[in-house]
Each structure stands twice: as structure tokens, then as C-alpha cells.
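Input sequence (444 aa), recorded before submission:
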Amino acid sequence: MAKLRSRRRARKCEGKMQHMLHFFGGAVCECRTAMSHHSDEQALLTVTSDSFWEPGNYKRTTRRVDDGHRLCSELQALVQERADIEKTYAKSLRGWAKKWNDLIEKGPEYGTMEAAWKGGMVEAERLSDLHLSVRDRLVNDVIAQIKNWQKDTYHKSMIQLKERKEMDEAFKKAQKPWAKLLQKVERTRLEYHTACKQERTAQNQERNASGDSSLSPDQRYILVKKMAERVAKCRDDVSKNRDKYQAALAEITAYNPRYIEDMTTVFDRCQQMEAQRLTFFKDVLFSFHKCLDISKEPTLPQIYEEFHHTINNADHQKDLKWWANNHGVNMAMAWPQFEDEPPETTEPRYKYLPAAATAVLARVTTRPRSIPIRALWSRAQRRFRRALPTICFGDERESRVAPSDTTSVYNDGRCYNVAFMVRHGVGTVSRADGCEKNKDSIGT
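Predicted structure, C-alpha cell format:
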């Protein structure tokens, strides 16, 4: 059984159907496969139907021009998405820091431990700035670098890229003579194989005619002779077509070196262009790495050193002492002492408060807890009267007006000081419009 399996594995597929049957049967065939990046050097040299030298197969090479242009756009999108991630992360860090800063300030934590908590918020804010700078470098340096190189390297035309069109035309020009010779070879090969098939058919007919017992000897002789002539003619056609086929092969074989040289020249141009792209992409990825490698940032160690220092400064003894002084046993206290009953008084008490240009009399009374509406209205009336000049209410408001050195001019042209102050010897008669009044002329 093991020998049978090894024999099955050693067999070689002769077509797609047989290959499929071997595959589903569990056998490992040795048929020729397409080149992959895991193939060894011998597989790279294997001639297959997908060979570069076959007509039109150069388009896989020229397609790399379009692929390079598209890869530039995809690399830009890749870096842009990472830049957006950096921006979102920085925004999330800053939002997190703001939220917890507010909660810490309103919360019960205090003292040096509160500062240690806030150290984490400071670290988040500074790290947010660092990631924003990473995002800016990605956009301004890496993406701009790719975009400029793509613009300088690839040039779009109406239908396709100019570089792709030039490469296609160069390959087509190099391959056209060889493709014509190949068509000639294929045609002569087909003619030769057709002639061989006709010769075999004629030989079979001749053999069948010679053994046909249903015919008379004369008929058999005539038929066999006719078939022999046909076989001879087919043999001549086979010989002629073989010569044509071999001549076509000799011609294309002689042209192969020229064909290889021309195709290699164009292929090297494509390789050179692709080498530039690969080298540029390598440099871009190094730039991408440099932007993302925040471990090389000089501010990063400083951020965490300061964070560690802030946490290390937390001192529970200082916090406990502060609490004792502000909320505990070390607070000052007005201990209860014996107090005499204060005398009751109904007289209003007055005190003078300094103002910009006059002395303001403030009445300090003890407001009852609940005041009727009528009492409030009466109080408002009294305050309104005090605000009016003395001449309007006379002595009714004398005992309620604070001393003032401000003079008032009324409609009759007379000027007065406050009567209360004049009566107590602090007021004087003022002059207005050339008229002088004495104390006796001052009325209420």
C-alpha cells in the first residue's frame, strides 16, 4: 500500500481533470505550478504557459505601474487612518483628564494626595499633546512626502497612466516580430500535425481495403491501389509540412536572442522604476516608524519623572496634620462662657458709614422674623420721605437725616444746608444768585 501511494505521488498530471482527480484522491502531483515568492531558484527558471516571454504576458509587469500608483494612495490612507487614531486618542486623553480633574476638585480627596491624583491628569494632558504632535508629523511629513512623490512619478492621461502606456508600447514593439514568427510556427505545426493525421487515416483505410472480403479481387485491387496513392500523397504532404515547420522553428530560434535582448531592455526599465518605488516606500516606512516611535521623544521621560515625583511627594502625615488643623482637634473654639442678659432697647441705633462725597446713615435694627404687609408698606413710605429734600416734609424727617455738607438749590433760588446741621451748629448759610440767608430765614 505504501508503494502504491508513493507511485501515485510520483505520477505527473497530464491535464486539469487528472490534476483535480489526483488532488481529491489525496495524491501530491508533480505538475508544473505558477511561480510564487516561496519558490526556489529552479522553479523560477521553469518554463510554463504563463512565461513572461509568451505574447501578452508582459502586461503583468506593466500592471505594476498601475499597482504602484494605487499603492501610493493606499499607503496614504494607511498613514491617515493612523493619524486619525492618534488624534482620537489624544482627544480621549484630554477629555478623560478634564472629567477627572473636575471630579477630584469636587470630591473628598485633599492635600498632597489630591495633588498626586491630579498628577495622573497632568500626565494625560502632556501625553495628549505628544500624540497630537505625532499626528501632525504623520500628516505634514509622511503623507505630504508620499503625495509629492506620487505626483512627480506618475502622470495621468485621459485613459491610463502615461508611464504604463509607454511601457506597453515598448514591450509590444519588442515582441511584435517574434509574435509573427511564433504565429508562423504555430500555423506550420498545425499543418504538419494535420498532415500526419491524414496520413494515418489513409494508411488505416488502405489496410482495411486490403482485408475487405466483401469486395471482388478486382475491386479490392483498384481500391487498394487508390488508397496507396492517397497514402503516398499524404506522406509527401507530411514531408513538406515537416520542412516548413522545421524552417519556421529555425527562424524563430535564430530570432530568439534578439527578442530576448529587446524584451530584457524594456523589462529592465520596468524593474528600475519598480526599484525606485520600493526604495521610496522603504524610506517612507522608516519615516512612519520615526514618527510613531515616541520612546525617542525627550519629553516622554520627563513626563513620567515628574509624575513619579508628584506621587512621591504625597505625605500622609502632612495631610493628617492639615485635616487636624482645619477640621479636627487643632481648630480654635469659642467655648461657652457666662453672659449677662443684654438690655432691651426699642431705640434705633445709628452708625455712620463713609461714602464718596457724603456720610451715609445706616440704621441697624433687629428685623422681626415675620413682618406684615402694612408694616412693610409703612416702612417703604418712611424711606421714601427720607430720600426727599427737607422742604417737602419739614421737621418730620429731621431726626432721621444724617449730617451732610451738601447744599441743595430749590425753585425759589434759595440755597440751604440741612436744617438739622444748622440747628446743631454744623451747618452754614449758603449763597446763591447773590442772596445771603441767615439761620433765622431757614425754614423747615
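Checked by second reader. The first helix runs from residue 2 to 10.
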